[in-house]
UniProtKB/TrEMBL annotation:
Residues 208-218 have a biased composition (Low complexity). This is DOMON domain-containing protein. The lineage of its organism: Eukaryota, Viridiplantae, Streptophyta, Embryophyta, Tracheophyta. The keyword Membrane applies. It comes from Morus notabilis. Residues 192-218 are annotated as: Disordered. Its main location: membrane.
Amino acid sequence: MASLFPPLLLLAISLSIFLISPAQSQSCKSQKFPNNKLYANCSDLKVLTSYLHWTYNASNSSLSVAFTAPPAKSDGWVAWAINPTGTGMAGAQAFVAVRHSNGSITPRTYNISSYYSVVQSNLSFEFWDYSTEYSNGSITIFASVKVPEKKSLNHIWQVGPGINQTGFLIKHDFNQENLAAKGILELVSNSAGTAPTASPSPSPSSSPAPDTGNSTNSGKNGGVSLFGSRSSFGFSVASLLLVFVNLVAF
Ligand SMILES: *[C@@H]1O[C@H](CO)[C@@H](O)[C@H](O)[C@H]1NC(C)=O
Ligand SMILES: *[C@@H]1O[C@H](CO)[C@@H](O)[C@H](O)[C@H]1NC(C)=O
Ligand SMILES: *[C@@H]1O[C@H](CO)[C@@H](O)[C@H](O)[C@H]1NC(C)=O
Ligand SMILES: *[C@@H]1O[C@H](CO)[C@@H](O)[C@H](O)[C@H]1NC(C)=O
Ligand SMILES: *[C@@H]1O[C@H](CO)[C@@H](O)[C@H](O)[C@H]1NC(C)=O
Ligand SMILES: *[C@@H]1O[C@H](CO)[C@@H](O)[C@H](O)[C@H]1NC(C)=O
Ligand SMILES: *[C@@H]1O[C@H](CO)[C@@H](O)[C@H](O)[C@H]1NC(C)=O
Ligand SMILES: *[C@@H]1O[C@H](CO)[C@@H](O)[C@H](O)[C@H]1NC(C)=O
Ligand SMILES: *[C@@H]1O[C@H](CO)[C@@H](O)[C@H](O)[C@H]1NC(C)=O
C-alpha cells in the first residue's frame, strides 16, 4: 500500500498542475450558466470585462450567443449587437438588457439607425429565445439569431449606466474601453490557430483516442480539447481525491 503512495501522489500533483494551466488562458472557458446552456465556442472580449459564448450552425446560418458583462451601474444596461452594414454603432442590431433598481431585467431590441436616434425597434433579422439573467454583478444576454451567410460578422458591445425617466437609454461613457468595444466574430475558424472550447463532436465523454495521423502537435491539441472547461474541474477533484485516499491509507 505505502509503496503506491509516492507515484500516485506525483501523478496527482502533475495532473493538477497540467490541468490548471491551460484553463487560465481564457476565463470564459470556466464560466457556466445557471440554465446549463452550453456553447461550442467562447471568447474573452478585449474590453469592458465582457465574454461571448456562441454556437454557429452553418446549415441554417443560425447563431446562438450568450453575452456577459457587468453594467456600468447595478441598475444599468448591457448591449450586444451585430452590425450587418458597418463596424460601429450606426446600423447595429442590438440586444439591450436593462436592469431596474428592483432587480428585474427587461430585454429590449434596438435597430440603431444613427447615433442620434437610439429608440427601441425590431431588428432587421429574425431572432428567437431571447432572455436575460443576472448573476454575480453581471448581466447575460441569451439570444439566437439568423445571420447573413458569411464566415464572420461585425459585432459590438457596450455597457451603460441606466435609463432616464422616460425610459430612454442613458449614454455610455466615452472612455477608451467603450470606444474599443467592437470586433470581428469569426463564425468559421479560418485555420487551426484559434483556440477551441470544450471537446467537439467525437465522443466527448470517453478517454481521448490517440487521435489522427498528425503526431506533431497532437499532444497540445489533445490537451486543450480534453481539458477545456468542463472536464478540468472533475479531473482536479479526482486528483485531489487520490491524494486524500492515499493520505488516509498512509
Ligand atoms: C443545424 O441546423 C440544421 C437545420 O435546422 C439542423 O438539422 C441541425 O441539427 C443543426 N445542428 C446542430 C448542431 O444543432
Ligand atoms: C436552426 O437550427 C437550430 C438548431 O437546430 C434551431 O434551433 C433553429 O430553430 C434553426 N433556425 C432556423 C431559422 O431555422
Ligand atoms: C421592477 O421595476 C420595473 C421598472 O420600474 C417594472 O417595470 C417592473 O414591473 C418591476 N418588477 C417587479 C417585479 O416589481
Ligand atoms: C416587431 O415584430 C413583431 C412580430 O414580427 C411585431 O408584432 C411587433 O409589432 C414589431 N414591433 C415593432 C416595434 O416594430
Ligand atoms: C432598421 O432600420 C433601418 C434603417 O433605419 C431600416 O431601413 C429598417 O427597415 C429597420 N428594420 C426594422 C426591422 O425596423
Ligand atoms: C464574481 O465576480 C468577481 C468579480 O468580477 C470574480 O472575481 C468572481 O470570481 C466571480 N465569482 C463567481 C462565482 O463567478
Ligand atoms: C430621456 O432621454 C431622451 C433621449 O435622449 C430625451 O429625449 C428625453 O427628454 C429624456 N427624458 C428625461 C426625463 O430626461
Ligand atoms: C468552434 O468550436 C468548434 C467545436 O469545438 C470548432 O470546430 C470550431 O473550429 C470553433 N470555431 C472557431 C471560430 O473557433
Ligand atoms: C496533417 O497536418 C497537415 C498540415 O497541418 C494537413 O495538411 C494534413 O491534412 C493533416 N493530416 C491529417 C491526417 O490530419
